Request: fold
Amino acid sequence: TRFPLAQTKRHPTGSIRFLSTGRLIPFKGFDILIDACAQLQNRALNFACEIIGDGPLRADLEARVTHYNLQERIHFAGEQSQNYVLRALRNSDIFVLASAPDERGASDIFPTVIAEAMASEKPVVSTTVAGIPELVANGKTGVLVPPRDAPALADAMERLGLRLDPL
Reply:
């Protein structure tokens, strides 16, 4: 009951609403998500992406958004309450988490944000890192791609985003 089901459906001509949440640290892969969004912008896909969370990489990630001229498409919401996150989940179309091992090999083990997105009946685009394949049934509840592969992430985001009934 904490994760109410989606109330709204995206209109076929509306902007695809991507959401990602987490601490802004290397193994969350937000840099890869931004790179994938840059590719989607180059493909002229109509989308918006909200990133909820804060952390030591925020300035670097914001600079990356500026570098790609994505300021109109990517919004950093900062750290937010659980109620805000639930509302954002409800209003999004697709949840994206681009997890990847960092330079020391640390990674997401079993990200609860994916379980929360799935409890909200949102399709998920993520990576094959650690326990994520145990959460996401590739091709059924979402799409999994290799870590640190921005083109594959962009392809999966576009493929799900262009479907009216994602999965």
